[in-house]
């Protein structure tokens, strides 16, 4: 395979178009609103209420425990990311040894898309079973990204990583917006059940990913695995880890990435739950107003990914990340102190959109640029992925725990600022050039 092949790059980019409908329609928009609505309706029915008292909390039962619906949502997501963090390094070692990244990408794509379709059967009366679909869909989506991201250093030269990474996120935003608009018409204009949107997500994701599978090669380095693939996969991973811990720039970047990305992903995953609870939508279009705000984030997210890729070309990747993370700190402070009405949330959504796509695109391409010359890209990207997923486990659990302890989801939002602050400070300690040492300090 020749790096820079336009057809292969376009095929790679198209997986963002395929899978981003999950992160928008299910993670950010339709499902959180649907989940809050059905659990609230069930709670009112079970307690003989007609409406939730002001300041009231919707409690749900889950394996005998009684927690608020948003706390349960946070904990289930946290558990799914913990599984991904455990699986991804093991599977990536096997993928690198066998040369089968594409097969793993396909498996988790289909696993996630079928899990998304199964969310059609979500029932608040049987949350233990219903939340399994949420749990499995999250595992499928995030594990597929390990193998997808690992292709970037193989298909493009380092100087093109920012541009191609940003193009992927931009394609993803536009594709997801198309399906979200369709879902908005489906639910708000045609008045069909929202649960059909989860079926549309699964079909879209699995169908458009075929473009990627036709374009991406499998076994780029023509590896011929023998017997004991699991054992040798572990050895492959251990060898990569021993090399990885000697790379000071890469290690220090991942330390910073752990903190600021924990903040980014926690906000993205739980912002809709926050907005549905804390913003007064009753006289401002109801949940359709919230979905419009999410659409605004997507439109500006595409623009933000493009602008930040340009900015990184001028001031460098690390300084660009500093700018983005600083804005995230301001966003969390504004969410806590200012946002109560829809107009205020719209303004904040615009700010989120401008930095959301950009920080993810630049973070991915920065890691790709910092990699040493290697054939073990899936194993190296598994460290990136594990760092991301453990951060999300910590962030989503921390978010739910703070709400459970304080009784305020606003306190959860302001607490996320801590992650951004640590990430911002650690960016100052990343050396300009790679330093390879014999020690692992």
Outline the structure in words.
By secondary structure, the chain is mainly alpha-helical. The protein is 77% helix and 2% strand. The protein is built from 15 helices and two strands. It has helices at residues 6-46, 69-98, 101-118, 127-149, 152-155, 161-189, 196-215, 229-244, 248-278, 286-315, 317-337, 342-370, 377-406, 409-415, 417-426; strands at residues 59-62, 65-68. A two-stranded antiparallel ribbon has the order 1-2. β1 and β2 form a beta hairpin. It is globular, with a radius of gyration of 21 Å.
Briefly say what this structure is.
With 441 residues, the protein is mostly helical. It has one domain: MFS general substrate transporter like domains (Growth Hormone, Chain: A, Up-down Bundle). The chain is built from 15 helices and two strands.
Number of domains: 1
Any idea what the radius of gyration is? 21 Å
Question: At the fourth CATH level, what is the homologous superfamily?
Answer: MFS general substrate transporter like domains
Which term fits the overall shape?
A: globular
Q: Might you state the CATH topology name? A: Growth Hormone, Chain: A
Low-confidence runs: none
Q: H/E series, N to C?
A: HEEHHHHHHHHHHHHHH
User: Helix segment count?
Assistant: 15
Distance between the termini: 36 Å
- The mean pLDDT is 84
Please give the CATH class.
Mainly Alpha
Into which percent range does the helicity of residues fall? over 70%
